[in-house]
Amino acid sequence: MKTFLRFVGMALSYDLAINVFLILSVQYQCFVAESNVSVERLEQYMHIPSEAPEAIETNRPLHNWPSVGEVEIRNLKVRYQPNAPFVLQGISCFVEGGHKIGLVGRTGSGKTTLISSLFRMVEPTEGKIIIDGLNISTIGLHDLRSIPSWHHSTRSNTF
């Protein structure tokens, strides 16, 4: 009987050791899997295309641009990926300077994409956005995004 109890004690001792070993091995496998995901994410970030230049010295807008605030959108077509379908399909409109407008539409109708196009967060595939006679695709991103009236209008229209 004593020998049997010794074997039971030894089996319980090994059982606890194996249990700890299994827990540690599963934790290590999770750590390795997380590390691989981080490496994959870094690899994806390395292949993201860069934005347009901040300033194009040969085509800088005047200091008082935009003076009137007219916005003309001509046949604007936008897609997020090269072979993806168009998100905006040939939008054309004209907004006179000094007017405030609102974008209204259903979920997925392209409101955010249109605003993103105005700031060139998304580059148009076709068409033009012209502000006070200047095609915004021809100027640098800093020159476009640092327009004082953008900051004033977005700040005053937030709730």
Detailed description of the structure:
- This is ABC transporter domain-containing protein.
- InterPro entries: ABC_transporter-like_ATP-bd, ABC_transporter_C-like, P-loop_NTPase.
- Pfam families: ABC_tran.
- Residues 88-145 form the ABC transporter domain.
- Keywords: ATP-binding, Nucleotide-binding.
- The chain has 2 domains: 1-48; 57-156, Rossmann fold.
- The protein starts with a helix and ends with a helix.
- The protein is 42% helix and 15% strand.
- Strands 2-1-3-4 form a 4-stranded antiparallel beta sheet, covered by helices on one side.
- The protein has helices at residues 2-46, 111-118, 141-145, 148-156; strands spanning 71-78, 88-95, 126-131, 134-135.
- The longest helix has 45 residues, at 2-46.
- With 159 residues, the chain is α+β, with helices and mostly antiparallel strands.
* Major sheet summary line: 4 strands, antiparallel
Q: Give the tally of β-strands.
A: 4
Structural domain tally: 2
* Helical segment count: 4
Adjacency order of strands in the biggest sheet: 2-1-3-4
CATH topology name of the largest domain: Rossmann fold
- Helices and strands: which structural class? alpha+beta
Low-confidence stretches: 154-159
The topology string of helices and strands comes to HEEHEEHH
How large is the radius of gyration? 29 Å
Gap from first CA to last CA: 81 Å
User: CATH H-level name of the largest domain... which superfamily?
Assistant: P-loop containing nucleotide triphosphate hydrolases
Average predicted local confidence, pLDDT: 86
Report the β-strand fraction as a percent range. Answer: 15-25%
Q: Helical percent range? A: 40-55%
Architecture of the largest domain in CATH?
3-Layer(aba) Sandwich
